[in-house]
């Protein structure tokens, strides 16, 4: 099924437009995991084609085009169909980058003006006339509802439109009617998000340099009606420091983590040390959890994206990386949210140790979603992506010492740091 646009492909840019960086329509680049405007247009959108005499071409492709009956609203406002092709549904970081890219896409349309001076998109007025259509078959995932930050209508899939009409709002039901008063919006892909760029080098961006990040975070909290708390928690003695460990159940587990956390509790009996498998929590509950967290700890992975949802400038992020990785993305994210960052590298287990860890883990070890996607495409996973890690108890405690003491050192608690 394709969405039909009753207009030809836009003309090539002229010399002045090319000098300003505008590329021809057919030169738009694809992005990883089969995403981005080029992929969406090639697979899901058909343009009106004309012969040399100006008449519309009648070819086999056009005959296969399904037309959606997109009615205008009672006040005559046009409808907007947001075509979403996701990288996956389970990796929090990737999903959030895609949703963030959509917010930037619509923000640009709100700022850009038509010839009559009106913006291309009005928010929140156009939210009633906006429909999110998911083009892939990755399933819902924990962030599915967050796509409704752009629309007051249910999120539908292409499969819903073809096979399950009863799930689809009337303006999107497939019929023989021509598409009228409808705008198709193809968002910037998640891979183009500025937070992805230069994440293998240390960037000099601080909280003052991250207004787009702050705006996106606020929108996420507003959507789920979760209070966004700012600044350090008001201390009650020294016992209200909360350390939250992200308990990975697939790849990159921290071996013997229960023993390490028990050792940390013994060293700091007055603070709360807790461990959660974030995959078992709803996204709103994850937000509430990290808002109450002073020190967020985890092995390198998508869960550390939650650094953006911690109280700004009021905590610490601890990342344990597989040896030799050298990734800087979460370090940069912590800097942009005003969190202190502490990192260490840990030894990757040998093949024999990995097999032992599989038999001892609480749940079967399995590749993460992005690793499964690479395997389907014949791309080998890198060793650090599939390995577990091990860190010595004394090194783990030394790492946590500096993180916890940095929270004490905010000056709000009556505690010596040495």
TrEMBL record:
Signal peptide: none annotated. Residues 226-316 form the Glycosyltransferase 61 catalytic domain. It is an enzyme of class 2 (transferase). Keywords: Endoplasmic reticulum, Glycoprotein, Glycosyltransferase, Signal, Transferase. It holds the Pfam family Glyco_transf_61. InterPro entries: Glyco_transf_61_cat, Glycosyltransferase_61. It comes from the Eukaryota. This is EGF domain-specific O-linked N-acetylglucosamine transferase. It comes from Sporothrix curviconia.
């Amino acid at each position: 099924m394709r969405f039909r646009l009753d207009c030809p492909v836009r003309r090539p840019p002229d010399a002045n437009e090319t000098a300003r960086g505008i590329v021809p329509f057919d030169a738009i680049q694809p992005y990883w995991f089969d995403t981005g405007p080029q992929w969406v247009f090639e697979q899901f959108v058909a343009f009106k084609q004309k012969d040399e005499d100006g008449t519309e071409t009648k070819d086999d492709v056009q005959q296969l085009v399904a037309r959606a009956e997109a009615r205008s609203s009672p006040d005559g406002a046009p409808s907007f169909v947001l075509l979403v092709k996701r990288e996956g549904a389970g990796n929090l970081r990737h999903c959030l980058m895609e949703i963030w890219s959509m917010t930037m896409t619509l923000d640009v349309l709100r700022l850009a003006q038509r010839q009559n001076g009106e913006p291309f998109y009005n928010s929140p007025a156009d939210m009633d006339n906006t429909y999110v259509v998911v083009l892939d078959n990755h399933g819902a995932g924990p962030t599915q509802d967050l796509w409704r930050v752009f629309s007051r209508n249910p999120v539908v899939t292409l499969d819903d439109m073809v096979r399950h009409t009863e799930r689809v709002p009337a303006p999107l039901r497939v019929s023989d009617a021509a598409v009228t008063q409808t705008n198709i919006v193809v968002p910037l892909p998640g891979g183009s998000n500025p937070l992805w760029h230069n994440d293998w080098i240390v960037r000099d961006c601080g909280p003052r340099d991250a207004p787009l990040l702050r705006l996106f975070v606020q929108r996420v909290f507003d959507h789920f009606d979760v209070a966004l708390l700012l600044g350090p928690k008001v201390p009650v003695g020294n016992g209200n420091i909360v350390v939250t460990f992200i308990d990975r159940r697939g790849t990159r587990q921290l071996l013997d983590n229960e023993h390490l956390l028990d050792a940390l509790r013994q060293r700091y009996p007055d603070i709360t040390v807790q461990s959660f498998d974030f995959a078992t929590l709803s996204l709103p509950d994850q937000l509430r959890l990290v808002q109450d967290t002073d020190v967020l700890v985890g092995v390198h992975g998508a869960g550390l994206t939650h650094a953006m949802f911690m109280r700004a400038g009021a905590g610490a992020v601890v990342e344990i990386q597989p040896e030799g990785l050298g990734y800087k993305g979460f370090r940069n994210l912590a800097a942009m949210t005003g969190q202190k960052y502490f990192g260490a590298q840990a030894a990757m287990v040998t093949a024999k140790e990995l097999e032992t860890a599989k038999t001892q883990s609480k749940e079967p070890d399995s590749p993460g979603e992005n690793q499964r996607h690479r395997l389907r495409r014949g791309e080998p996973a890198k060793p650090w992506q599939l390995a577990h890690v091990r860190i010595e108890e004394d090194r783990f405690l030394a790492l946590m010492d500096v993180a916890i003491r940095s929270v004490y050192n905010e000056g709000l608690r009556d505690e010596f740091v040495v």
